[in-house]
User: Fold this.
Amino acid sequence: MNRRKFLKASAITSAALIGENLWRGGTPVTYGSQRNEIKLSGEKIPVTMEADIVVVGGGPGGFAAALRAARMGVSTILVEKYDMPGGVHTSGLQGAYNAGVGGIHTELMQRLDKEGHVYTVTEKAFPDWAGNPLSHYESGLKPGSSFSRSTFNPEGGGNVMLAMLEEAGAKALYNHTFVDVKMKKPSKKDTTLEAVVVKNASGLQAIKGKVFIDGSGTAELAARSGAPFARGGGLQPSTGAAGRQNWPLPGGLLWIMGGVEFEEVSQYQKSQNDLALSKLISTALAAGDIPPELFRPRLEGKCVYGNLYIGHPTLDMNPIQGPGNFIFWENVPYEWALHIDDNANDEARAKTAMRRFIDAEARFLKKYVPGFKNAFITNVGRYLGIRDGRHPIGEYVLSIDDALNSRTFPDAVTKPMTKNFHWDCYKPHTFEVPYRCFLPQKVNNLLLTGASMSFTYETIFMVMRNFPWCIQTGEIAGYAGASSIKQGIAPKELKWTTPLF
Ligand SMILES: Cc1cc2nc3c(=O)[nH]c(=O)nc-3n(C[C@H](O)[C@H](O)[C@H](O)COP(=O)(O)OP(=O)(O)OC[C@H]3O[C@@H](n4cnc5c(N)ncnc54)[C@H](O)[C@@H]3O)c2cc1C
Assistant:
């Protein structure tokens, strides 16, 4: 999709062109078929900062990119909409703690551990957790089997990441929202990003850079720069989900409850033979105490399409932070087909509905479920995490077939990796990723990271969206950006011959 189509597709009207290629976005007010537009022209935006590398978005990808670049001694600015780095895993409350995969990921996990932010549960503390239908991660295990599940405290984790950036000398700008781009004059082949425009407490400001990195999680910088991309929702018939094209995989808003007495919950589950709390849910539904969409039936499909996220049929929780605290998943109904990443109405509808669901679920738990009487909502994620935003089309697009067939590449960024693929129900596959997946088409000084990589939707979602990999891709992008600056070349000219990991 080109820039023009992007503007159309996302229902954002280009209200004015200011200088060359700079447009101001906004959701049009629509009356019938008429668009009501205002024109802002000639507005001057002050350039308040400049750096070698400008990273937009401080999630796992953007955080690691800024950290690596700053550590390599190039001036680095990170622009982040919320008040800490970490994205879905801090502001979004996910807190995924995993065994270190090397580099910044291992360093971060060790530091989170050392600073006391990691909470681990095993079958010793939770004998009824493995195989429990309420368990987000362990429901598939044999009841009573051993397990170990660790998470990090999202707020504490955000503080650690913030400190790491400061220590490295990266300038992180929190509560700064990227809204726009200023492009240099296009050459025959490519265009070059000159500056990003951010909105902050002072109004609109521009930040100039030499190399830019997209860590937005939804390829927003790539899209606004005119790089081609595929919109979320492109499910392929081969997944068994025929007929559901243009349904982006649902986003999710996470929230936490404290004061839960889990032993009482499991006693109830066993004594009443009501493992999924279906009896209590039916009673509450009949009494009009929960909306019918809250615990809706599963949709068909295999693995992740059918059983894990889609349909969100019942309560879905995981211990986090310390005894009595649980994190809950609230997913947008898949069939609503909302494009949360690029449609303001969809985003507002989703966020409102998720807040309503959280309120209803918390009330239901307290009123009906033993063990929740004294429980209370402690946090709701600062944002609704997006699982299927824009997918940029880069110099190479890694497909699920590349991964399944272990295709090798001369510019592989890592040694061959072996991962369990959601795609075929967690079978392990060994594969490589080329550097070209970090390079969007058309824009020559932009690098991609995390969930904004040039992968097909299936490859991102079914294989490559997890926290460790997003940190790794961030580190690779930061390394590539800083190396380009040092060599005085564009990231597209960088010769990648040796895997970084
Ligand atoms: C609900 C949910 C649950 C998940 N569960 C797991 C899990 O259990 N384990 C796991 O490993 N992975 C999980 N994932 C996947 C993983 O969290 C994501 O793939 C990963 O966080 C993507 O990293 P990212 O850095 O690309 O983007 P994000 O984490 O989305 O970070 C993007 C950052 O950019 C910022 N940003 C966005 N737009 C702007 C803007 N305009 N201006 C300034 N800043 C901006 C955001 O505020 C955010 O901080 C989950 C994802 C979701 C949505």
